[in-house]
Automatic annotation (TrEMBL):
Keywords: ATP-binding, Nucleotide-binding. In the N-terminal section; belongs to the PINc/VapC protein family. Belongs to the PhoH family. It comes from Parachitinimonas caeni. PANTHER family: PIN DOMAIN-CONTAINING PROTEIN (PTHR30473:SF2), PROTEIN PHOH (PTHR30473). The keyword RNA-binding does not apply. Gene3D superfamilies: 5'-nuclease (3.40.50.1010), P-loop containing nucleotide triphosphate hydrolases (3.40.50.300). InterPro entries: P-loop_NTPase, PhoH, PhoH2-like, PIN-like_dom_sf, PIN_dom. It comes from the Bacteria. Residues 14-149 form the PIN domain. This is PhoH family protein.
Length: 471
């Protein structure tokens, strides 16, 4: 009876043929197919070999994939033709076998598809395997949309690689805030205790909704002259403590001459100005004020409060590719073309100081620029930042691995702020669901020293707002 069960299970398991871009995107993809088998065509190995040179992320991933393959193949006594078990090298993550192409394949492709092209050779392998295994589902896995379209046109099964996706739908991403109504107070406010401490009002609530709250999540209730705005400071079982937040929309609380123009900006400034919060992520469309608010808070905490020694700003230089070497000058000068956003925002922050006059503003500008360092991502490995205010702009273009490399640079007393718009990703094969920014928002939510806000309202100009709406 047991043998019949195992046979039916084997019949259900699929055979996944991997395209090279899957391995170059995520080398651990070999172990991500659970009980199913993985097949690598010879062309995939050839392409891995041709991409392994260089210091780019793709080259590093190609080398790592090759190392994994070497471990799997050399650590097993089984023949490659029969399949090498993945359970041991994957430490129980995968239960299938790995097959490598060991013989030439004569797949009959349509005449229009040139045989010399690597993609078409992989399609020929998939076609051959589908013919050899009529009772088993053979699926091509590729990050290349055109490759998947060609496969489906030939009547073959094809899928994108989803295992690296944090979320299926970006709309489900944590926003960092939650709206409450009167029923929330009815359900959770029966034994409410409230007190004042250090200029903030605290509320201890007990009830069924408290366990769903996350640390440093913002809660708000509309209505009345003064809406209720608070941050979650403690969560323990069915008990939570809410604390009122500082009102940065009021001119007396202006940060470097900047006041919050809406509720989300107010929330963002509360997170940015809190020295207990070491990691802040701000998501939002163009013009929502991410960079301006972050720079204003950074300057205030560096020059006025002296919490940090300097501001370090970096961003991904995707349009140029990997290297910034062909531009003349030092690292700072080479990064200047990508730092237009920094200069634009500094101009705004300088103009807010109306009393000092032209000379005073020029002196302030020089002082500010001396405290802001612009760094390239390419030289971040091995560094440690102490008491710095680190801003990572355009963070949606980073992979989860690059994001980890950057955030782990933070030494004692450093605050890291990641800014980005996940609907504007320029990195190939990176999507809203698999971006490093989405990854950190999801992984850091609920940690006591991290906060996140999704900014929704554009505050750039009426023209920019209307363009974002209608174009």
């Amino acid at each position: 009876m047991a043998t019949r069960k195992s046979k039916s299970k084997a019949r259900q398991s699929k055979l996944f043929v991997l395209d090279t871009n899957v391995l170059m995107h995520d080398p651990t993809s070999l172990y991500r197919f659970e009980e199913h088998d993985v097949y690598l065509p010879m062309v995939t190995l050839e392409e891995l070999d041709s991409h392994k040179k260089g210091m780019s992320e793709v080259a590093r991933n190609a080398r790592q994939a090759s190392r994994f393959l070497d471990e799997i193949v050399s650590g097993s006594e089984a023949s490659i033709t029969e399949g090498v078990a993945l359970s041991e090298p994957s430490k129980g993550l995968a239960g299938g076998n790995l097959f490598l192409q060991t013989q030439a394949v004569s797949g009959e492709l349509p005449v229009q598809l040139p045989v010399g092209k690597a993609d078409n050779q992989i399609l020929a392998v998939v076609m051959h395997l589908a013919r050899l295994n009529p009772k088993r589902e053979v699926v091509l896995v590729s990050k290349d949309i055109n490759m998947r379209i060609k496969a489906r046109a030939l009547g073959l099964s094809a899928e994108d690689y989803f295992n690296d996706q944090v979320l299926e739908d970006a709309d489900l991403l944590y926003t960092g805030m939650r709206e409450i109504d009167d029923t929330f107070w009815e359900r959770n406010g029966k034994d409410m205790k409230s007190w004042q401490e250090a200029g903030h009002a605290y509320y201890r609530l007990t009830g069924p909704d408290c366990s769903n709250l996350l640390l440093n999540e913002m809660v708000f209730q509309e209505g009345g002259e003064r809406p209720f705005l608070a941050i979650v400071r403690e969560v323990s079982g069915k008990t939570a403590v809410l604390a009122s937040i500082k009102d940065y929309t009021h001119p007396k609380n202006a940060i470097w001459g900047i006041t919050a123009r809406n509720r989300e900006q107010n929330f963002a400034l509360n997170l940015l100005m809190d020295p207990e919060i070491d990691f802040v992520t701000l998501l939002g469309q163009a013009g929502t004020g991410k960079t301006l608010l972050t720079l204003a808070a950074g300057l205030m905490m560096t020059l006025e409060h002296k919490t940090y020694t300097e501001i370090i700003m970096t961003r991904v230089t995707v349009p140029v590719g990997e290297d910034i070497g062909f531009l003349p000058g030092t690292e700072e000068e080479k990064m200047t073309p990508w730092m237009g956003a920094l200069d634009d925002n500094l101009d705004v922050l300088n103009q807010s100081d109306g009393e000092s006059g032209e000379w005073g503003r020029a002196a302030t500008r020089d002082l500010i620029r001396s405290r802001i360092k612009v760094k390239s991502l390419n030289f971040m490995r091995g560094r440690t930042f102490l008491n710095k205010f680190l801003i990572i702009d355009e963070a949606q273009n980073l992979t989860p691995k690059q994001m980890k490399t950057l955030i782990t640079r933070a030494g004692p007393g450093t605050k890291v702020v990641c800014l980005g718009n996940i609907s504007q990703i320029d990195t190939p094969y990176l999507t809203e669901g698999s971006s490093g920014l989405t990854y950190v928002v999801d992984r850091f939510k609920g940690w006591e020293h991290a906060g996140h806000i999704t900014l929704q309202r554009g505050e750039r100009s009426r023209l920019a707002d209307h363009a974002a709406e209608v174009l």
